[in-house]
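Example 5.3 — Anterior gradient protein 2
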Amino acid sequence: LRSDQSETRTSLRMKAVLSVVLVLVVISSTIAKYIPKSGKRIPQTLSRGWGDQLIWAQTYEEALYWSRSRNKPLMVLFHLEDCPHSQALKKVFSENNEIQKILDEDFIVLNLVYETTDKHLSPDGQYVPRILFVDPSMTVRADINGRYSNRMYAYETGDINLLISNMQKAKKLLKAEL
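Solution (predicted C-alpha coordinates):
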Protein backbone atom coordinates (compact mmCIF):
# COMPACT_ATOMS: atom_id res chain seq x y z
CA LEU A 1 0.00 0.00 0.00
CA ARG A 2 2.84 2.39 0.85
CA SER A 3 4.59 1.83 -2.47
CA ASP A 4 1.32 2.53 -4.34
CA GLN A 5 0.90 5.81 -2.42
CA SER A 6 4.54 6.68 -3.04
CA GLU A 7 4.17 5.99 -6.77
CA THR A 8 0.96 8.05 -6.88
CA ARG A 9 2.70 10.98 -5.17
CA THR A 10 5.69 10.72 -7.50
CA SER A 11 3.37 10.58 -10.50
CA LEU A 12 1.46 13.65 -9.28
CA ARG A 13 4.72 15.54 -8.69
CA MET A 14 5.94 14.68 -12.18
CA LYS A 15 2.65 15.84 -13.69
CA ALA A 16 2.87 19.08 -11.70
CA VAL A 17 6.47 19.67 -12.82
CA LEU A 18 5.55 18.93 -16.45
CA SER A 19 2.59 21.31 -16.21
CA VAL A 20 4.82 24.07 -14.87
CA VAL A 21 7.40 23.47 -17.62
CA LEU A 22 4.67 23.52 -20.27
CA VAL A 23 3.26 26.79 -18.93
CA LEU A 24 6.75 28.34 -18.93
CA VAL A 25 7.35 27.23 -22.53
CA VAL A 26 4.02 28.69 -23.66
CA ILE A 27 4.66 31.98 -21.84
CA SER A 28 8.19 32.33 -23.18
CA SER A 29 7.09 31.62 -26.75
CA THR A 30 4.31 34.22 -26.62
CA ILE A 31 6.57 36.98 -25.32
CA ALA A 32 9.58 36.08 -27.44
CA LYS A 33 10.80 38.69 -29.89
CA TYR A 34 10.76 37.99 -33.61
CA ILE A 35 14.12 36.65 -34.75
CA PRO A 36 14.91 36.89 -38.48
CA LYS A 37 15.46 33.70 -40.49
CA SER A 38 19.11 34.63 -40.85
CA GLY A 39 19.48 34.52 -37.07
CA LYS A 40 19.88 37.17 -34.41
CA ARG A 41 21.38 40.34 -35.80
CA ILE A 42 23.46 42.92 -34.04
CA PRO A 43 21.15 45.84 -33.17
CA GLN A 44 21.66 48.94 -35.28
CA THR A 45 21.48 52.44 -33.95
CA LEU A 46 19.54 53.31 -37.12
CA SER A 47 16.54 51.44 -35.72
CA ARG A 48 16.15 54.03 -32.96
CA GLY A 49 14.20 51.33 -31.09
CA TRP A 50 11.61 50.64 -33.83
CA GLY A 51 12.97 47.16 -34.60
CA ASP A 52 16.52 46.47 -33.55
CA GLN A 53 16.75 43.25 -35.57
CA LEU A 54 15.71 44.94 -38.82
CA ILE A 55 18.16 46.33 -41.35
CA TRP A 56 17.39 50.04 -41.65
CA ALA A 57 18.46 52.25 -44.53
CA GLN A 58 20.53 55.25 -43.53
CA THR A 59 19.11 57.78 -46.02
CA TYR A 60 16.09 58.15 -48.26
CA GLU A 61 18.32 57.84 -51.33
CA GLU A 62 19.83 54.59 -50.03
CA ALA A 63 16.36 53.26 -49.20
CA LEU A 64 15.11 54.05 -52.72
CA TYR A 65 18.14 52.28 -54.21
CA TRP A 66 17.56 49.16 -52.05
CA SER A 67 13.85 49.21 -52.86
CA ARG A 68 14.49 49.33 -56.59
CA SER A 69 17.37 46.84 -56.66
CA ARG A 70 15.63 44.30 -54.39
CA ASN A 71 12.15 44.92 -55.80
CA LYS A 72 10.66 45.49 -52.36
CA PRO A 73 8.35 48.27 -51.19
CA LEU A 74 9.80 50.91 -48.88
CA MET A 75 8.18 51.97 -45.65
CA VAL A 76 9.22 55.44 -44.45
CA LEU A 77 8.49 56.27 -40.84
CA PHE A 78 8.70 59.87 -39.63
CA HIS A 79 8.90 60.38 -35.86
CA LEU A 80 10.48 62.49 -33.15
CA GLU A 81 12.31 61.22 -30.10
CA ASP A 82 10.55 63.66 -27.76
CA CYS A 83 7.04 63.16 -29.18
CA PRO A 84 4.78 61.15 -26.84
CA HIS A 85 2.70 59.86 -29.79
CA SER A 86 5.85 58.65 -31.57
CA GLN A 87 7.11 56.98 -28.39
CA ALA A 88 3.78 55.20 -27.77
CA LEU A 89 3.62 53.96 -31.37
CA LYS A 90 7.28 52.85 -31.24
CA LYS A 91 6.58 50.64 -28.21
CA VAL A 92 3.62 48.86 -29.84
CA PHE A 93 5.36 48.71 -33.25
CA SER A 94 8.63 47.25 -31.95
CA GLU A 95 6.86 44.65 -29.80
CA ASN A 96 4.57 43.41 -32.59
CA ASN A 97 6.13 40.25 -34.02
CA GLU A 98 3.90 40.28 -37.10
CA ILE A 99 5.01 43.78 -38.08
CA GLN A 100 8.66 42.96 -37.43
CA LYS A 101 8.47 39.74 -39.49
CA ILE A 102 6.73 41.38 -42.47
CA LEU A 103 9.19 44.27 -42.48
CA ASP A 104 12.19 41.95 -42.22
CA GLU A 105 11.08 39.67 -45.03
CA ASP A 106 9.23 41.95 -47.45
CA PHE A 107 10.20 45.61 -46.99
CA ILE A 108 12.98 48.13 -47.06
CA VAL A 109 12.66 50.31 -43.96
CA LEU A 110 13.74 53.83 -43.14
CA ASN A 111 12.95 55.91 -40.11
CA LEU A 112 13.59 59.61 -40.06
CA VAL A 113 13.68 62.11 -37.20
CA TYR A 114 13.90 64.98 -39.66
CA GLU A 115 11.92 66.09 -42.69
CA THR A 116 13.22 65.45 -46.18
CA THR A 117 13.21 67.98 -48.99
CA ASP A 118 11.10 65.57 -51.07
CA LYS A 119 7.61 67.08 -51.00
CA HIS A 120 6.14 63.71 -52.07
CA LEU A 121 6.84 62.46 -48.55
CA SER A 122 4.62 65.11 -46.98
CA PRO A 123 1.54 65.07 -49.24
CA ASP A 124 -0.73 66.40 -46.49
CA GLY A 125 1.74 68.18 -44.25
CA GLN A 126 4.62 67.51 -41.90
CA TYR A 127 3.58 65.77 -38.67
CA VAL A 128 4.69 62.78 -36.64
CA PRO A 129 4.31 59.92 -36.39
CA ARG A 130 3.71 59.52 -40.14
CA ILE A 131 4.16 56.36 -42.24
CA LEU A 132 4.31 56.33 -46.02
CA PHE A 133 4.86 53.52 -48.49
CA VAL A 134 6.94 53.86 -51.65
CA ASP A 135 7.00 51.20 -54.37
CA PRO A 136 10.20 50.14 -56.22
CA SER A 137 9.30 52.42 -59.16
CA MET A 138 9.87 55.24 -56.60
CA THR A 139 6.18 56.16 -56.51
CA VAL A 140 4.89 57.32 -53.14
CA ARG A 141 1.69 55.36 -52.50
CA ALA A 142 -0.57 58.22 -51.44
CA ASP A 143 -3.49 55.77 -51.73
CA ILE A 144 -2.27 53.73 -48.73
CA ASN A 145 -3.19 55.76 -45.69
CA GLY A 146 -4.45 55.67 -42.13
CA ARG A 147 -7.90 56.46 -40.77
CA TYR A 148 -7.58 60.17 -40.03
CA SER A 149 -8.79 62.66 -42.63
CA ASN A 150 -6.72 65.54 -41.21
CA ARG A 151 -3.52 63.44 -40.92
CA MET A 152 -3.86 60.84 -43.65
CA TYR A 153 -0.62 58.95 -42.91
CA ALA A 154 -0.77 59.03 -39.11
CA TYR A 155 -1.07 55.85 -37.07
CA GLU A 156 -1.73 55.59 -33.37
CA THR A 157 -1.28 52.65 -31.01
CA GLY A 158 -4.81 51.42 -31.67
CA ASP A 159 -4.20 51.42 -35.44
CA ILE A 160 -1.71 48.54 -35.53
CA ASN A 161 -4.11 46.19 -37.36
CA LEU A 162 -4.74 48.88 -39.98
CA LEU A 163 -0.99 49.37 -40.37
CA ILE A 164 -0.51 45.61 -40.87
CA SER A 165 -3.35 45.63 -43.41
CA ASN A 166 -1.72 48.55 -45.25
CA MET A 167 1.63 46.73 -45.24
CA GLN A 168 -0.10 43.73 -46.84
CA LYS A 169 -1.73 46.09 -49.36
CA ALA A 170 1.68 47.58 -50.27
CA LYS A 171 3.00 44.04 -50.87
CA LYS A 172 -0.03 43.04 -52.98
CA LEU A 173 0.12 46.21 -55.07
CA LEU A 174 3.78 45.49 -55.71
CA LYS A 175 3.03 42.04 -57.12
CA ALA A 176 -0.06 43.17 -59.04
CA GLU A 177 1.38 46.31 -60.64
CA LEU A 178 5.02 45.56 -61.34
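Remark. The longest strand covers residues 74-78.
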